[in-house]
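Margin note from the TA: students keep mixing up input and output lines. Inputs are the sequences; the output is the structure of the whole complex. Example:
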Amino acid sequence: MMNQTSSISSIMPLDKAGNNYVYSDEQLMARFQKGDENAYIELVNRYRDRLLNFIYNYIGDFEISEDIVQDTMVKLYQKKHYYREIAKFSTWLYTIAKNLANTEFRKKKQRKITLLSQISRDDKPYDIPADQPDTDQEIQSDITNKIIRKAIDELPEKFKTVILLRDIQELSYEEISSIIEVPLGTVKSRINRARLQLQVELKHLRT
Amino acid sequence: MNRYEFENLISDYLDGSIPFKKRTEFEEYMKDDPDAESLVRNIKTTISEMNNLQKVKAADNFNEKLLSRVENEGIVGGPNNTILGFTPFYASILSCLCVAFFVVASQLINVSQDSSFEIKTNQYTAELEKNTPSYSKNVDLEKKLIVDSNIDSLQDKTEKEKPNNSNKIKFVNY
């Protein structure tokens, strides 16, 4: 199986132009359901970073987030036959990831070890595995990032999920509606309210 | 337009999905209220900042870890052995329930058939008795009497035909 990772590009050429792949997610999933494990690896490659960003912004812990993405991919492997093409593949995968993240989020709440309660306001709330900023502009951008992440983190759970899916993952309202299983109107209303609430949290950033 | 309506339409305005008439009202409201205008501007800025949030990347060995996990934990690639979309466990429960249903249903059908047969027989007998005319009952009675008398006469006849041996055989003592 390891060798398949390296040979995937030769087996399954994906002439990428932006996000236009030769094979759509659904086609890859169909191939995977027929036993083509290269298709699985390609799906993992397409979604691991996107899911990681979503979960990382939701949970706030990189290692836990990576574990959740691993679990999501394992579930994808195990439950491949449950997928039907009536739903978009991305919606299906995000639903799995969101459910796993929710479980982790609740566990975290129960243990009362959220990062924000453990560290003081001035401490670094997120451990971002990235290079240290060099210029003033990068430093400013880094601070803004942290403030925004913190503001998002302080949103109620239902607002946080929709804002992450819409404004960071850039999913459509319809996709979000399918993932969180609430009507489209509710999704729109929640996004609007979440954006307004974020402005309250970010008031000091704008003044 | 009031403040409440204005706030409700902010996302639609930013997405460009607001109807033309409402859009005009919305923009007029912003002109009249600088706070409203700055709110919309700030939301727009926040959205673009969220889009540009520093992205995290999975570790280089992510795929290796995943694939070794799939191999080592012996994860089976999906239930190929589903029966009509049910896992074997649920399929067996479902089939047991179906069998139980048919057994109970067949027993209930048998019971209802027996009782309905009895009821029908009783009804038929009652109707027969009810519908039988009185003269036919008399005829029956007459027939019965005739049969009885025939039997009697036959008995008499046989008795008559019996040889009276007592008269014929005589033991003589010499």
